Predict the structure.
Amino acid sequence: MIALVPAAGIDQAIDDVFGPFATWLESIVFFAVPIAGTKVPLIVGWLVVCGFFFTIWLRFLNVRGLKHAVDLVRGKFTRADAEGEVTHFQALATAVSGTVGLGNIAGVAVAMSLGGPGAAFWMTLCGFLGMSTKMAECMLAVKYRKIRPDGSVSGGPMYYLRDGLAEIGHPGVGKVLSYFWAICILFGALAGGNAFQSNQAAAQIVAVTGGDQSFFADKGWLIGVLFAIAAGAVIIGGIKSIARVTEKIVPFMGVVYVLACLVVIVVNIDMLPGAVGAIFAGAFAPEGIAGGIIGALIVGFQRAAFSNEAGLGSAAVAHSPVKTDRPATEGFVASLEPFIDTIIVCNMTALAIIITDTWNDGDAGTLGGIGLTSRAFETVLPWFPIVLAFAVVLFAFSTMISYSYYGMKGTGFLFGDSRLAENVFKVVFLLFTVLGAAAGLKAVITFSDCIIFLMSLGNILGLYFLAKVIRREFDDYRAELREGRIEVVAPEERIGGSST
């Protein structure tokens, strides 16, 4: 793993005060039980079981609705005058920018080193199940969103937990879960969605500009200031500004990274059949722990659950302001997130590492995630890790601006949908951008990881309560489609007036 950009005084002072609490919280949130020789974090099972339940409950709508999801992203069923602030594509890009990040590079590499190639199979399966969870939570986000008189939108788990559960007769439970979720996203956005991202981006910049001899080696704060200026210029305009940036940066960074992985794969194309075979063989291998079925399954599920965030509810905030008159449409669109994040991007990383056999290097465990991926890139060209560093910086920046919106909306909800509270959060967020690049804040990051996954407790519980509402909404929408009551919108009446 890349060394954190040092600022020993700040980091140590915070860790001394905050460290014991963060460690205690981590032991609870990521409590693991031993199964077949390996430890299984219960929180991972909570996320995976939810995906399995909604895949069955919605009768594999994540597969049956895939083509319709793509048509919706293309704007074929959305009128320009529909309520909302952003297009289906912009909402999808903003949500994807919050999930496609360091986990797709470092996290997948760690999964390969711990669980072997077989982990990639289970990672893909978990991504497939996560598509259904995303469908459920993002549909609810649109159904229960709040539209202000000026047309701006607030939505997400805090609203559908409060209002959705009240609608079915559980107002007290809904209120508690909604405020708990909003508090979690506030802290999670500041640390894991911001400080950690700026820190790792700063570490990459230092690494590719000379390491300890780099001009930036002792100037993490300067990198943080530059990131804060760039992020501030985007987030000051709210979701419309964020969406305009993410709809450009997400496709670009995704294509750059996937192409880089494809170059590694093509150069080693003769090894591809063996790599694919190793994935399937490793997924069902009988031997224990690292290469065995249980070990590979748990590592793969954990990596996918941590990467695509299905069940956490964060992406529902990004999808809530979409321009649509039918909540179910955004459920279909949201299903594409885990498909892009886990099934495509994570598997590109996995194949690059497996095909170059770097996962099996003797020092793979000490290289850390990004180091392992970097070594796979180096097997093609010595300067190829620069492409990786570029991707890491882009991924980190896109995650930051998406999480700024999540945290802003959570803060606004806690203070009565207050615009002032949202603006105060933006200032605090940018301060954390600088602080994150200047100091490791290890305890804060540990705390943030715990808080982000705690969101899944209230969110998934709410999804189970609202399961009948979710299926009814999708069933009604599909009935309208079958009966021809939902027609393709003429190109001149679509958003942008084109036939994209």
Observations:
- The chain has one domain: 8-473.
- Residues 171-208 form the longest helix (38 residues).
- The CA atoms of residues 90 and 243 lie 5 Å apart.
- The radius of gyration is 22 Å.
